[in-house]
Structure formats: C-alpha cells, structure tokens
Amino acid sequence: MKPKILTLALLLVTTSLVFAQQVDLSAASKMAQSNVKAFKKAGINKVMFVEFFGEFITAKETAPSVMSQRWGPSGLKTLVQEVELSEDYYETLTNQIYGIVEKIFTENGIEVLEKEVLINNPDYIALGLKEEKGTRSYTGSVTKKSVTTEGVKRSVTGMGMFSETLKIGAVAKIKKMVPKIANDNGCQAAITVKFKYGLGKKNVPTLNFINLAMDHDVGSSGKGKHQMFFFKKGGIAIFTTKKGLTGSSDFDEGGGKYDAAKYHETMVDMAENMAGAYTVLLKQGLQ
C-alpha cells in the first residue's frame, strides 16, 4: 500500500492521566454499554489484568466495487491511506492506555494488582506468548466497495496475547495459572482488555472500541499440591463501546506536514474520553 502519506517519529510524550473531558452520565450511556450489576453483585474490590492489547490500523485501501468499475462513471479512484510510525510507538501507546484504563477501577476505590505479579511469574514467561503481530483484513463484494486494511496488534510490555495464540497448551496453562494468582493475591476478578484504532478520512484516527470483560468467582478443587483453582464464571462483558470516537484533525498542518505531538495527543484523548465514560458508569453502578 503506497504511497506513504503520514510519517511520525517515536513519541515519548508525557501526559497526565487526567481524562481529557469530564463525561457526564448521559453522555457516558450513549458511548458505552455496561454490566456493572454483575460487578457489584460479585462484591469485587480487587482485580488483575490478565490480557491487554489493541489493534492499530496502519494502512487502508478503499476501492470501488466491481459493479461500479464496470458500469459506473469513469474516473473512479482507489483511495490509499497509510500511517507509518516508529517501531516501538504502539508499545509505548499501549502501555500508556493501560494506565488510563487502570484508573477506571482505582478512581472507584477498586484495587488493581500490579501487572508485574503476572508478567514476572517464571511459568508465565515460559509460555512465550507473542506481544505483537501483524494483521490484514478484507471486506467487499461485487456490489459493495472493497476495503483492505493492514495493521498491528500490540500488547502491554511483557503481557502476551494468549487469546491470539494457537498453542492450546499455553491457553490451558493460563486458565490454571491466573485463578491461582488471583486467589493468592486477594483478587476476585481477572480483566481482559481489547481495543482498536482505525483510520478515518484524511488519516484522522478513530477509536473503534475499548472492551472490557472479566472472569470471576474463584473456586478450587483438591487439596495440598493437587489443589487447583478456577473461575466459576467467565467471559462476562463489563464495558462495551456502543459508539466509537473520531480524533481531532489538529495534527494536520497542511501541505503534507503533520504535528507528531498533536497526533499522539488525539490518540490519547480518545482513550481517556472512553475510559472517562466507563469510570462514570462504574461509579453510578456501584452506588
């Protein structure tokens, strides 16, 4: 997918983890769907993150449908968009988003287990889970325009994407390991976070979703060295984005020039605004 339209250097931008805008309950309800009742009913006061990654669309090609090309007016063009960032930009941004999402819980009095407890566990490290992988997708038909995208999925540093692995054994080990870590550290739930950024018109970034799900209610069987822990309830969605966000175009200075800091700022602002909505919904639900 050429030509490359937007090039950004690595951004080591330090921003405060204060939500970009104060989101009221009405706005939050339009942005997201929540299942805080399940959270409250379980009496959860401490959680751990077990998986945290996002997909970033870095290239997008939109072409007229086959029908349009054959029977439509002449001059129909294929639109090519591409964003090229430094090699470790998405890792840096994902780590920052982790801090933003963490505040959804801590600002509501819910403790979050340090992620190092999981990622420094020798058995977890031995699984060798991938932290980054490329993506490619296609949608379209004879009567509809075709859209081909390329991107990258990136996790928090040290926290692999176990739901993306084909290693069945690794997934089985995770399902045994995490409940035990949760039990040993007083956590009532394990949280999975997945998000996606897209490319809008003129390369304006979009935040398609940030979705949070949980496994909770730790149980056990056996005794002594044969004791095993497990979650009695799993895959429960607690926050789901209903309406994605479109970033600011302030980074576009015209003439093919872009402000890298402003581009990063709009990426972070969208995450903060969505997390702000979740924070409000959680606060309301816990009352």
Structure, described:
There is one protein chain. By secondary structure, the protein is an alpha+beta fold. The protein has one domain (24-54, 87-137, 154-286). Helices cover 31% and strands 34% of the residues. The chain contains eight helices and 13 strands. The chain has helices at residues 25-31, 36-41, 66-71, 89-106, 116-119, 122-125, 168-184, 260-286; strands spanning 6-7, 32-34, 46-63, 79-84, 111-112, 132-139, 146-155, 189-199, 205-221, 228-241, 245-246, 252-254, 257-258. The strands form two sheets. Strands 1, 2, 3, 4, 5, 6, 7, 8, 9, 10 and 11 form an eleven-stranded mixed beta sheet that branches. The longest helix has 27 residues, at 260-286. The model is unreliable at 1-20 (pLDDT under 50).
Using brief descriptors, characterize the structure shown.
8 helices, single chain, alpha+beta, disordered N terminus, 11-stranded mixed sheet, two-stranded antiparallel sheet, 287 residues, 34% strand
